[in-house]
């Protein structure tokens, strides 16, 4: 779509989501996989490291992923509706886009990082297509139902932790993995590119496993994004007073709930049950108020500002910048680059955040001043449409 037809509000929110996801993903590159959920796995448990974990958990983890998924849902409606209005088959256009996105995500997963979300979004995006003609009220009810299913699944994980047969496997992914397993992961990711690919191939849960574990939550947030788009919330159509009212209601509620979850994990000594409760049983529903509050606060503050313009440029090239951040972090931490994997503490790793954000915020406007799309967006669009799209401006 042309720049004139883009919805700047969506671009701004997408840009913020990209920055937030880099915060959440950074320890996932720097530390072994289980440390993403539990500080006991790796990364240190001193005051600075626990503070870094708590701030990320309360303010970012799950919230930026939820915001990104919601924006994905809003964009899904936008693409389908505009394709239909242009006389195309909107559903077919969307399915081609999801097929290409799945391939991009699979390449990202195995070549760079186990935590890829693109292939997962592509699969859930196919299911979300079933709701494109639903009114906002039905979308909201379906979203709540999907998040409830995610919560029930999380409760099932907590109960499974009490069974010896499944506890060991859950500890490996979300708790305190055995020392030999940690050592083998560290050796593989400090090794060659081939070593890293082989590790991810052996230990990835697979598309179906990810769909069963996280699909209901992702679908719930996509449907919330579709609701926000259809109601005008996500497009900046509401009055400033309404956005302020939403932020004032949801931010205190969401922060209080997230703080309670963080305190519960710390007080319980990050037992497996506490980690699973926070991330899977209660997280899907508890994250929703902060996702809405963040969006409302940003939309009553950023549109029309210089900061908003930079974030909108970042949002217009969100796919490229998501992949670029992965490439930069992988080059720092993995063995084919600087080989710093599991050598830094959790708090230390966040020293990389300011230069990484600066790269994204400065680079996106400079690129889009000369080109119509980010490089990944151009590839996605060209393959999905079966012909190379015009890239340079003018």
TrEMBL record:
Which positions fall inside the DUF418 domain?
Answer: 229-386
Read off the InterPro entries from this record. Answer: Bact_Transport_Assoc (IPR052529), DUF418 (IPR007349)
Q: Give the species this sequence originates from.
A: Sphingomonas citri
Keywords carried by this UniProt record: Membrane, Transmembrane, Transmembrane helix
Signal peptide range equals none
Give TM regions. Answer: 12-30, 50-79, 100-132, 138-158, 243-262, 274-302, 322-339, 351-369
One short Pfam name that applies is: DUF418
Q: Does the keyword Transmembrane helix apply?
A: yes
Q: What is this protein called?
A: DUF418 domain-containing protein
């Amino acid at each position: 779509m042309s720049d004139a037809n883009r919805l700047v509000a969506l671009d701004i929110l997408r840009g913020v989501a990209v920055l937030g996801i880099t915060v959440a993903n950074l320890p996932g590159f720097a530390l072994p996989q289980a440390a993403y959920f539990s500080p006991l796995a790796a990364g240190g448990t001193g005051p600075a490291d626990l503070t870094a974990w708590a701030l990320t958990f309360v303010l970012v983890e799950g919230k930026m992923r939820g915001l990104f998924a919601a924006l994905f849902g809003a964009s899904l409606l936008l693409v389908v509706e505009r394709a239909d209005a242009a006389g195309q088959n909107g559903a077919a256009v969307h399915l081609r886009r999801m097929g290409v996105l799945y391939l991009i995500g699979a390449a990202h997963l195995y070549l760079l990082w186990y935590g890829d979300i693109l292939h997962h979004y592509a699969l859930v995006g196919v299911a979300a297509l079933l709701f494109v003609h639903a009114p906002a009220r039905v979308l909201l009810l379906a979203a709540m139902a999907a998040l409830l299913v995610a919560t029930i699944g999380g409760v099932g994980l907590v109960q499974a932790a009490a069974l010896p047969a499944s506890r060991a496997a859950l500890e490996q992914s979300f708790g305190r993995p055995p020392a030999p397993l940690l050592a083998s992961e560290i050796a593989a990711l400090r090794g060659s590119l081939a070593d890293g690919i082989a590790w991810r191939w052996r230990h990835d849960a697979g598309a179906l496993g990810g769909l069963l574990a996280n699909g209901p939550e992702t679908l719930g947030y996509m449907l919330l994004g579709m609701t926000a788009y259809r109601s005008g919330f996500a497009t900046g159509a509401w009055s400033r007073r309404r956005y302020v009212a939403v932020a004032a209601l949801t931010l205190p509620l969401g922060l209080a709930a997230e703080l309670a979850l963080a305190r519960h994990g710390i007080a319980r000594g990050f037992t497996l049950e506490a980690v699973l409760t926070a991330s899977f049983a209660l997280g899907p529903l508890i994250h929703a108020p902060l996702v809405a509050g963040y969006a409302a606060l940003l939309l009553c503050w950023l549109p029309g500002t210089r900061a908003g313009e930079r974030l909108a440029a970042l949002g217009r090239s969100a796919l490229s910048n998501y992949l670029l951040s992965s490439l930069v972090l992988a080059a720092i931490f993995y063995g084919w680059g600087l080989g710093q994997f599991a050598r830094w503490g959790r708090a230390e790793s966040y020293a990389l955040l300011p230069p990484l954000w600066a790269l994204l915020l400065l680079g996106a406007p400079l690129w889009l001043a000369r080109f119509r799309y980010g490089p990944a967006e151009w590839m996605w669009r060209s393959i999905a449409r079966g012909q190379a799209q015009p890239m340079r401006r003018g």
